[in-house]
Amino acid sequence: MTPERPGELGRENSGGSHQGPTGPERMGDIRAAAMRPVLDTPRWWWPTAGALGAVVVLGLAAWVVQVSVGLGAAGYSDQAFWAVYEADLVAFIGVSYGGAVVSAILRLTNASWRAPLTRIAEATALVTLPVGMLFIIPHLGSPWKIWELVWPPYWNTASPILWDFFAVSTYLLATAVFFYLPLIPDLAIGRAWLDPGRRGLRFWACRRMYQLVGGGWDGSPRQRRLLHGAISLVAIMVIPMAVSVHSVLSFAFASSSRPGYLETIFPVYFVVAALYSGVALVVLAVAACRRLWHLEAFIHPRHFTRLGFILVAFGAGYLYLTFTEYLIDGYSGTTGNAAWVRQVLVGQYWIPFWFYFVAAGLVPLLIMAIPRTRTMRGVVVASALVLTGMWVKRLVIVIPPATEPLVRSPLTALGTLVGNWGTYHFTWIPISITLAATAAIPLGLLIVFRVVPILPMAEMEELADSPAVAAAPPPLAPARGVLSGPSVSAYAAPPEGIGPGGDTASDPRGWSPRLDSGGLPWGR
Amino acid sequence: MNAEPTESPTPRDRDGQAVVASADTAAADHPSPVAARPPRRFSRRRFLGEAATAGAGVAAAGVLGKGLLQHPAVLAAGPTTKQASNQTKATHQWAMVIDLRYCNGCKLCTTACQAAHYLREDQTWIDVFPMRNAAGQSYFMPRPCMMCEDPPCVPVCPVSANFRTAEGLTLVDQSRCIGTRICMNSCPYQARYFNWKAPRTAPRQPFPQEPGWPVPQVQGTVGKCVFCAAMLPSGKLPECISHCPMGALYMGDLESDVAVNGIGNTVKLSKFLKDNDAVKFKESYGTHPRVFYILGHGQDLDLDAGGA
């Protein structure tokens, strides 16, 4: 435990008491803060990971019970043939969209303030997407036959579910590539920070991985150009892929004649819902990482207010789509549609629907509209509300149409259908499995940030336009660091074209994103 | 249709599509011109390019051949076109007639069906719904599987577990079904039932467990009325029909144009349907059911007036 350890350096500087850091210190700051989760094991790490892991194991046990007893044990019946797992599938794949938004869209729009958030956002996408995909397994009645989905002779290309499977798999691959590409220069930097004196499987694996991924990176202009090109290309590709995933998911519902499922609005509705809840999850993940790994110097309250505005933009859009859907179906006057709308708004599903309306509809808008609550804490509260509210909204989307009576007297008056509506009753099994999936997300993030830097060091350093940075190269590694030198030092020099300008050097909060000239009024 | 995979799954074999065989022979007669070209140097770029082209081609052919052409929207030309065009002429085309004038709601059809197929209480493959007509009078409406000519449940299954036989029966291959339940979503008649728990055990059956005689049921798969498909070739009536004391249910054959009920009445099917103004349930959905309803208790002719 020498004082030069990068972790110590970072901890010193993250206290916020230091005055206007000079270039090298700031550079070291970023690297120290980014590598700290990899190098240090905080006291809370193992208890937290253990508790989350226990919840996941409980969920797996619940699934084993469900497989042996049958799906009926999860509260399903012929009058509620689709329920909580389908809502979970949509909700958990949906929250992975936050990574696409914050990384891809903000990257393509050159919003440089995004930089400190991108790694966290992309890691969130990378963790939530497999969790969401895994909900196919409890959803299936015969999960032991799931191999048939990848057995081409059995494929039915007219089936939306098959295309769901293809779309989600492709999107997972794109998300992984999108996570991997910006990691290359970071792991090249990170090699210097992996003290060869540290023993253990994790450090051994990290060293191997950093060497494998970042070993060939020398930061030459050509490599840099290629990497930027590749990242931009994947950023462009990942957006239509994300749109396709939820569109095709919605087709599985809409390929039906049931009122409430047969909706032309569904693809858009699902995509906007996914973006909405995805941004909310990014906010929570960023807030948690900022708190737990002391990233206050890099992630500022104004990052949250900006994410908050993105959040409520999607929230308002989703509220509008919900309004349109119910208005038109309720207005149509056909018995099935009117009865379904009535059932959702004032019938047996009124509690979940109005919960959504308040928690994920109105309150987030109000929080961002009122200056007093438009704070970091406010945005975090709004995001938590959005995540729960949108999960409940998915239940409202999935369950009522699945419980509709389709054979009924022709002459029930408008909106007063008395047929035998089914109901879905939760049991401990789907609750355990849903909780397990919820716990799997922070657990996955804890594990991911045990092996990769939590901040995109290379990107942040490129964007930090400080004259001091240009003047003095940053400390490459701790004194004891044995490093394959030339590549890292070549990379660590700031890129061309970054010259004096901006007032970030005097920003007492440390690293500041460069803002475009037409900066938003709430920035800085 | 030449995009059909050669290792066509069993359901398609049962469909007896002669088109598949002819397309394969045609391909064999004309060897691919690629083979005649001088060999090019094998490179990774070339491999990737060709693999991508082949993949895209297979996918496109699959979509066009299997997906769109078989989709009900494309084939909705008429109830009989599909039969005539791509299925071999079968000896029988099964249909059912339900005479609502005679149904008294005793539900003996339901219990007989459940007994014969060893179904649980909640699996009402033929269900009898109490209904109410314009004058507020009650009547009963039995609802088996409609054996649609354009069944919405078939194209949505990701693993092709639903299929339609040459004799016009829509069946489920329970050894294939993975239990996505998307067919339950697409069926407008709520005629599909899932095995949510372990099914009732059944003694040894005269027929093996197969789509035409799905006894015993399989946990985690979808089951539904099969018109007792395995009993029909031997001239036996389905259980619901032979147990209907009112003679309200008729088993019919569109090929030989005859229908028989459980109390020994035999009618000429086409004349019987025409004379009694038979209707189909939710005809506006374009499913072309093979179950005909005869009204007579003041019901609307359009049975799906209460539908979506």
Q: What would your notes on this structure say?
A:
The complex is a heterodimer of chains A (524) and B (308). The radius of gyration of chain A is 25 Å and the shape is globular. Chain A has one domain (6-15, 23-408, 423-495): Formate dehydrogenase/DMSO reductase domain (Formate dehydrogenase/DMSO reductase fold). Chain A has helices at 6-13, 23-39, 45-69, 84-95, 97-108, 115-134, 136-139, 160-180, 183-190, 201-214, 221-254, 266-292, 301-332, 335-345, 350-369, 376-402, 428-451, 457-463, 467-471, 485-492. Chain A is an all-alpha fold and 524 residues long. The longest helix of chain A has 34 residues, at 221-254. The two termini of chain A are 38 Å apart. Chain A contains 20 helices and no strands. Helix content of chain A is 64%, strand content 0%. In chain A, α3 (45-69) packs antiparallel against α17 (428-451), α4 runs antiparallel to α6 and α13 crosses α15. With 308 residues, chain B is an alpha+beta fold. Chain B has two domains: 10-29 and 37-70; 85-306, Alpha-Beta Plaits (2-Layer Sandwich), CATH 3.30.70. In chain B, 28% of the residues lie in helices and 15% in strands. Chain B contains ten helices and eleven strands. In chain B, the strands form four sheets. A five-stranded mixed β-sheet of chain B has the order 10-9-8-1-11. In chain B, β8 (249-253) and β9 form a beta hairpin. The longest helix of chain B is centred in the N-terminal third of the chain and has 27 residues, at 44-70. Chain B is globular and about 75 Å long. The model of chain B is unreliable at 1-39 and 67-86 (pLDDT under 50). Classes of the chains: A mainly alpha (524), B alpha+beta (308). At the A-B interface, α8 and α14 of A face α3, β2, α8 and β6 of B.
